Amino acid sequence: MLLTAIYYELCYKHTDFWRMSVTAFDGLRAILRLESNWDVDMIRRTFWTCSLIESWYYFDLNLPRTEGGDFHDAIALPDFDDRKDFGDHPSVESRYQYNFLSMLSLRALMHRTFEELQDASDEGRKEGEKADLKIVISELSHQLNTWRTILPQELAWNDVTRVDCNVGRGTRGVPPLLHVDILLAQLRCRYYYARFMIHRPFVWKILHETPASFSRSPDILEGFVIAVDSMMQWPVAYPSIRDKKRLVPNNFVWTQSFLMFLLLLRAIRDNSEAWRLCEETVGVARIEESVKVMLDWIGDLRMVDRMARWAWRILEPIYGLTE
């Protein structure tokens, strides 16, 4: 059922993907209640894969979660010792394992962020108040920085070169590792998504309050800049990843995030004080480049993905786009 769900996502049937992944998670829970041996690595890998998929739908679309969370404290993390998926490429194998486990730990941090700072029931009306939770935001930011600091060397990156995920490129006679660029791009984007969500209340503060009210607060200005920087240059929207979109997991995630960023960046551009801050700290060239690649992602998918087509229609009058 999980493979069927992934197939639906490859066909851009996002609703069917969600339904089938929920069914797979429910089926796995039934097996866990009957199966006494939970140490089978493939069961653990399947469980945590379902949990990751469910989490992204919850984070991005606020869709309900199953009761699979009841097993989170009982199911150990996979150790990948029962098989080799990339037997001829041990470096790919190690990166896949590290990536999967790192994504799980980032998922846990994202859940803490949503519990502390996000409340779908208020429909954003209290977003500005969350900017006053400086201790909470500081602690979440510290945990995220710690997560990045302890990443294995194979997954580490530099902010300046965040879009370069082509491992092995430039080494004569050594081709890039098989689709490792997708793994690295996905992990980096989820990190920047987490960083954006932690600092998002500051964006609301800058856009809705007068300059006099926040100009005396360096924390608000710094948080706003971090949030805007987190929207910039997501690797999945750049070659070589953008050229193989069907292989990128959870396609709906990127379209949804890009739509949110494009709407926010347009609102920021129409706010003279916010735009001045962006010009001085982030740079107009970076913003325009990021807008271009995000529009390119959505525009390229709109022919086959109804969600991307819907997003394109929303953006058409805002960015002066054409069919």
UniProtKB/TrEMBL annotation:
Q: Give the InterPro entries listed for this entry.
A: EcdB-like_regulator, XnlR_reg_dom
Question: Which protein, by its recorded name, is this?
Answer: Xylanolytic transcriptional activator regulatory domain-containing protein
Q: Boundaries of each Xylanolytic transcriptional activator regulatory domain copy? A: 2-148
Instruction: Give yes or no: UniProt keyword DNA-binding.
Output: no
Q: Which is an annotated Pfam family here?
A: Fungal_trans
**Keywords (A to Z) from UniProt:** Nucleus
The answer to whether UniProt assigns keyword Endoplasmic reticulum to this entry is no
Specify the domain of life of the species encoding this protein: Eukaryota
Q: Which organism is it from?
A: Lasiodiplodia theobromae
Q: What is the lineage of its organism?
A: Eukaryota, Fungi, Dikarya, Ascomycota, Pezizomycotina
